[in-house]
Here is the input.
Amino acid sequence: LLTDVSGTALEKNITLASPTKVELTCKLDENSNLKNPQVTWKRGSETISHTSKTPNSWTIQLTISESSQLGSYICILKGEIEVSATFHLQVPKIDGKEKRIITYEADRAVMVCKTEYDPKAWTWYMTNGTELVPINKILPTDKFQIKRQSGNVNRLEILKLTQEDRGVYWCEAAFELGSSKGRFELKVLSITAPLKPFIAIVAEVAILVTTIVLYEVYSKKKEKGAAKEFDQIEQL
Here is the structure.
């Protein structure tokens, strides 16, 4: 990772699905004005010694074997100015992990989770209060169907939707170094929902027509009353 001599911190995400060896390098541009900087590698408050260096680069080698070794590793170069670069070591993320789904009663909802690498296992959950209930273990298959389209793509279908099905659902992809979750918010509308704007318009039109009719009736009565009064005056 090339540090920016302007002082802007650079960041890079590194995805790890299984235990492996990682080599992280910070390198200054050859035209950098930052000469002979003091270099420090850190993970949190822990200082890490670099394993190799050249006049413009500094490298650490890591063996990542468990989830606790994931996280952010930063190299800091101090001289006339200070520059830094951060490497984020993480398990594969769920693509588009925040999604909202809106559908109707008696229809079905489809939720799809996808990752860059094949996980060891997929698990789907529904939220029950503050708890996550695993769908593939306790809920009926005629209502919930889980389909593994490929190694890195998993799909949940909820059939014959009712208002009770609305809520938050999660997919979880488990890797050797940890797991990632994707969140879905399901909203189930009544089948009459699309008709509500039409019903509101019809109601407004009905009120308007009724108002016009009443006004015409009132106007005619008023005209008849005025004509009768005029006839009485003429007779007098």
Notes: Residues 8 and 156 are 43 Å apart (CA to CA). The domain at 10-90 is CATH 2.60.40.10 (Immunoglobulin-like).
